[in-house]
Structure formats: structure tokens, C-alpha cells
Design goal:
Blueprint (H helix, E strand, L loop, with lengths): L1 H4 L3 H8 L3 H11 L9 E5 L5 H9 L4 E6 L2 H13 L6 E5 L12 E7 L8 H11 E12 L8 H20 L4 H10 L3 H10 L2 E9 L4 E8 L1
Parallel strand pairs: 1-2, 1-4, 2-3, 4-5
Antiparallel strand pairs: 5-7, 6-7
Helix pairs in contact: 2-7, 7-8
């Protein structure tokens, strides 16, 4: 599915989020913690490498490994990495978030942006992020959510349920954007997901709602 929408993925992210996804990613970067020269950062479900490239700009002395199961998305990401001449700092790897090909404690921090809801076993994915991140490192999750409270929640839900799939079909020719709406609706409530992170051994769980609750930023620390 993601192979089919790879070429339009970045454009559609800007469109359906009204450009807010860039601001959300900035907050993700700020929550990665203190990064030193020589540190390695893991970007799970890296897709077209937007976050991996943003990490490079945020912390010039680090290297980034991006993991994703979609060859189509990684092809687009590789072009962007090469265009920015960052092939020496960004490595893109084809792989499964539930079984990562990395050693324990390899990364100074890890993150996943708009991807954890696509992992069939989210617990396994979080455990893998915790395993490959060194003690004291941050595990940061940015994910879309369906607002459940507040006077504007019905309008936000209407956007997710009706506008997002229609824009996806109109501009990308892909009915797969119906999946986006369904996966957001099925994602657990923020408190439940925070509890899942805690059950994976992460401590000091922080949950930050973004833009009327249409997205949440989750941060945990590896014990």
C-alpha cells in the first residue's frame, strides 16, 4: 500500500494536516534529548526520510538510521538524502519494526513518526525501540489521533473521516487513504498508549496533545 502512495506521500501529509505536520515534527526533535557529536539516532517507519533529514539539521554531529518496510518509500527517501548530499550521515534500511537488525543499546535515541499505528504488534515494536536505545535515551512517538473531547472535536473527526480519504483519492488517485482514517480511529486512547509504553519498560512517560488532540507526542526514557 505504501509503495503505491510513496511519490505523493510528502505532498499529501502537508495537505491533509494543513502543514501542521512540520510543526509537530519540530516538537519531536526537541524531545529527543541532548545529542552529542557521534551519536546515532534511529528513525523507525522513516518512510520518505523527512524525520531522518530533520534530525540531521537539528543535530549536525549525529548520524541517523532510518528503518522502513516499504521499498517504494525508501526509494523516495534515498533520492532526498542524495539531493541533500547526506548519504554519509543517513542510512536507510529495509526492515521490520518488530524485529530490527540492530544490536542492543546502539542508539542514543529513537523515534517513530506517524508509523506506530501501522505496526501489527505495537508492543513488540516499542520493545525493539527500547532494546536498541541505550539506557537514559529517549523513545519518542508522534502519532495521529481522533479527538474525543472538546467543542471542536466533531469537526476534527469529520475532517479525519471524510475530508482526508477524499483528498487522498482526489490528489493521489489512491483509495488507500481510507486506511489512514480507519487506522486513526482504531488507535488506542492516549492514556492507554502511554500505559503500553510503560509496560515495555519505558519510564517518565510524557504525553502532549497537539492541535486539538488531532495528534499526540509521547516521550519515554529507557531504564
Amino acid at each position: 500500500m505504501f509503495d503505491q502512495i510513496a511519490e505523493r506521500y510528502d505532498f499529501m501529509n502537508r495537505l491533509i494536516s494543513f502543514g501542521l505536520d512540520k510543526n509537530w515534527r519540530t516538537l519531536l526533535l526537541q524531545n529527543l534529548g541532548a545529542l552529542r557529536d557521534g551519536d546515532q539516532v534511529l528513525d523507525v517507519a522513516t518512510g520518505t526520510a523527512d524525520v531522518a533529514l530533520a534530525i540531521c539539521a537539528h543535530a549536525p554531529g549525529v548520524t541517523v538510521t532510518g528503518l522502513d518496510p516499504s521499498t517504494g518509500m525508501l526509494e523516495v527517501g534515498s533520492r532526498k538524502v542524495n539531493e541533500r548530499h547526506l548519504h554519509d550521515r543517513v542510512s536507510l534500511v529495509l526492515g521490520d519494526a518488530q524485529d530490527m537488525p540492530f544490536k542492543d543499546d546502539r542508539f542514543a535515541a529513537s523515534c517513530v513518526s506517524f508509523g506506530i499505528r501501522n505496526v501489527p504488534d505495537r508492543r513488540r515494536g516499542l520493545l525493539e525501540m527500547a532494546r536498541t536505545t541505550r539506557p537514559g535515551g529517549k523513545v519518542v512517538v508522534l502519532e495521529l489521533s481522533e479527538p474525543r473531547e472538546g467543542p471542536l472535536a466533531p469537526f476534527a473527526r469529520f475532517h479525519i473521516h471524510h475530508i482526508v480519504p477524499r483528498l487522498g483519492s482526489l490528489f493521489s488517485g489512491a483509495s488507500e487513504y481510507r486506511y489512514l482514517q480507519q487506522s486513526i480511529e482504531a488507535f488506542p486512547a492516549p492514556e492507554q498508549f502511554g500505559q503500553l509504553m510503560e509496560s515495555c519498560g519505558l519510564t517518565d512517560i510524557q504525553i502532549q496533545p497537539l492541535t486539538l488532540g488531532t495528534a499526540h507526542l509521547y516521550t519515554g526514557t529507557v531504564a
